[in-house]
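Residues and backbone
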Amino acid sequence: MNAHILLVDDDTDLLKLLSMRLTAAGYRVTTATTAEGALTRLAVELPQLVLSDVRLPDRDGLSLFGDIHARHPTLPVILLTAHGTIPDAVAATERGVFGYLTKPFDGKLLLAKIAQALSIATPGGQAGKNDDEWRAPIVSRSSLMAELLAEARLVAGTDASVLIRGDSGSGKELLAQAIHRASHRAQKPFVAVNCGAIPEQLLESELFGHIKGAFTGAVSNHRGLFQAADGGTLFLDEIGDMPLPLQVKLLRVLQERSVRPVGASQPVPIDVRVLSATHRDLEAAMAAGQFREDLYYRLNVVSLQLPNLAERREDIPLLANYFLTRLADKYQKQLNSFAPEALEALATAPWPGNVRQLYNVVEQVCALATAPLIPLSLVQRALRAAAVEVLSYAEARQRFELDYLVKLLKLTDGNVADAARLADRNRTEFYRLLQKHDLSPGMFRSTPGVAD
């Protein structure tokens, strides 16, 4: 099955036994012996399920579940305990814990509970060895993207409308295609339209179709994109740019599940799942009267937010090398990799244009490259922008300390006793910190000469 399970238990013998049992059942297993260790593991790689003991050395399993649920609300968690009671189980399930088993537990029951949790978390079938095919074009190892894709997979098993938010170039259409592939409509058409790229007078005909003679130039019947996507998925990109008159007509189509081509007297039934996307602030557009509130709630049943590329920098080397391989074939060049300093420049660039901009930069260097190893000079030429500042740990700590001390002294009007108390440090230690950063309490006193 290859689903990834994180085991959390301070009993190393039980951890080893459970790991062997789950590995034998076809799962991929990672382990942790503390709650903090589990959260570290989650930051490195998001599993499909967490199986945790309730009593852990640093804190209890319910507290760990609270942290997991706050960061990854769709990740199923099963708790194990040697001290289970019915009230504990009720309390755990009311908070959202998927399952609660008391030690010693039956191995078959545990496997059944895991299979049940995974089948719900990945609707439409068991998590199998081909489970990642639906998202294969989305290259990522970011925990932010892993969480987003888990939510996308969950909603793909329904017909709920999804509004995908994200900056230009962040991959909104790619995510929409992935949701379509993971849905029961995967064998039917996926049709995409950019609502901001088509003139208003043509957009209605493009979406809903027209009949012959409906207007000057309509020399034959034309099926609109809603009919072209019948049985499948229609992706309305940049929905925030749709003119208000068309928003009214789109709302009617979604309510009645039928379209009326321009010039026609009878509606045509349709069965279409609608996904939409925007980089605009639709809430602000509604407040300004530029976007209909009733249409917003029709489209925004589920909202997914794509992170910017700068928020998932761990993906930049992965994406850059992925694009390099593809573009080397396109340009029929022998291009192997980036020089280390070139890859560092890519990883630290600001990327206001997100993944689309990264692809463009890699394409530029591929077109100009004359050797298998891409040098820094080519990357710098393509970027034409300053890299973001990356501090060493010591520099970052120094900067944080300075900012923290300044804020405390501003808050306390330069009163060292109060500032030291808020920092949970004694006055002597606090004074040493001030001397280290060349700070004087008098700099922050609104009334000069007031003693601590």
User: Anything to note?
Assistant: Confidence is low (pLDDT under 50) at residues 123-130, 385-389, 448-452. The longest strand covers residues 273-278. The chain has 19 helices and 14 strands.
